[in-house]
Recover the amino acids of this structure.
């Protein structure tokens, strides 16, 4: 069990906890949507995905975003997961990211989808 993200209080008045698989998914979300420089004690944490959302949409940018996301996930979570595939789509004012990964602890394959409004 690990602390939930975002932090919250459960019905017993204690810190809310989640199972390890949910915690790993939460950590992936933090890496994806944290802008480098946003965290005081870890200024290089994150991947800058949201900064790239307003760049012109073309194949070169899509490839660069996928490589950036995959590299950041490997850097920050490489001891926990093995990233197999990343797909990033920007439609209107929404950014969608799909990450396929294997949890190293039990070799279980997972698929996680994340979405953020840009407006």
């Amino acid at each position: 069990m690990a602390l939930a993200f975002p932090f919250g209080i459960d019905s017993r008045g204690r810190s809310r906890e989640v199972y390890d698989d949910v915690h790993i998914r939460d950590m992936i979300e933090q890496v994806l949507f944290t802008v480098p420089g946003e965290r005081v004690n870890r200024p290089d944490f994150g991947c800058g995905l949201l900064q790239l959302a307003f760049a012109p949409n073309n194949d070169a940018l899509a490839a660069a975003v996928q490589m950036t996301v995959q590299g950041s996930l490997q850097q920050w979570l490489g001891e926990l997961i093995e990233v197999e595939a990343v797909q990033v789509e920007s439609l209107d004012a929404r950014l969608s990211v799909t990450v396929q990964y294997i949890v190293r602890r039990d070799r279980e394959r997972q698929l996680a989808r994340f979405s953020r409004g840009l407006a």
The first helix runs from residue 20 to 33. The radius of gyration is 15 Å. The CA atoms of residues 35 and 51 lie 7 Å apart. Residues 2-117 form a domain with the Nuclear Transport Factor 2; Chain: A, fold (CATH 3.10.450.40).
